[in-house]
Amino acid sequence: MAETAPATVHLVGAGPGDPELLTIKAVRLIRDAAVIVHDGLVSQEILALASPQAELISVAKQRSRHSMPQEDINALLVAMALAGQSVVRLKGGDPFIFGRGGEEMEACRAAGVPVEVVPGISAAIGSAAQAQLPLTHRDAASAVTFVAGQCKGLTDQDWSGLAGAGRTLVIYMGVATAADIADKLMADGVSPAIPVAVLENGTRADMRTLRTLLADLGDMVAREQVKSPALIVVGEVASYALARDVLANWTARTNIGAETDK
């Protein structure tokens, strides 16, 4: 009896939350999949697109608490595909931007399982668009950098070239370390008065956009009780965001930002 050929594992970007931002290809694959292995940030509206017969497996990750270790997720994808089941690995945002899609791709390749990657609108692109915050702008920024705010060895890294005049820095997973991030950037020479925007629950009905200055970032995140998922955007482009400005009372108590008009 011939062995069953492995099915393809599709690493599919679910976008930042709004189901209307899914690609046509993503919708088709979600509807056709026998198994959907999904992150916790994938909305119920998107999961509702799956076939009633599909098996939905949550592998939600939270800070310091994972429902399934990454190695086990990799093994699950391989096992399902080797059993001949069509698998969609549904990931918030884009699979290859802080989504560990590269690790899952490598595991499938090593096991001889075909892989296809379907890009999604990243959290940064989707959230910035809803906030009308241009990540690049001819008058404000010609470069943009994405970093992870929970990265190991934060204090050992040199961020001095990532934010400042003509540059935009987008920080994923930075809510819990916002105060440390602000201190690190200022220690590396970034102006305390540079504009900052925080984009919480991007593209969803409860999205919040808050704007302040870098020196106030840590206090503002605590004061406004910002929760994940949220992005931090550092740079002059943050001043373009349609945002609730939470800076007024703070600047009245400091000299930082007193001469800015944004």
TrEMBL record:
Residues 8-217 form the Tetrapyrrole methylase domain. InterPro entries: 4pyrrol_Mease, 4pyrrol_Methylase_sf, 4pyrrole_Mease_sub1, 4pyrrole_Mease_sub2, CobA/CysG_C, Siro_Cobalamin_biosynth, Uropor_MeTrfase_CS. Pathway: Porphyrin-containing compound metabolism; siroheme biosynthesis; precorrin-2 from uroporphyrinogen III: step 1/1; Cofactor biosynthesis; adenosylcobalamin biosynthesis; precorrin-2 from uroporphyrinogen III: step 1/1. GO terms for biological process: cobalamin biosynthetic process; methylation; siroheme biosynthetic process. The keyword Transferase applies. Keywords: Cobalamin biosynthesis, Methyltransferase, Porphyrin biosynthesis, S-adenosyl-L-methionine, Transferase. One of its GO terms (molecular function) is uroporphyrin-III C-methyltransferase activity. It holds the Pfam family TP_methylase. Its EC number is 2.1.1.107. It comes from the Bacteria. Belongs to the precorrin methyltransferase family. This is uroporphyrinogen-III C-methyltransferase. It comes from Sphingobium chungbukense.
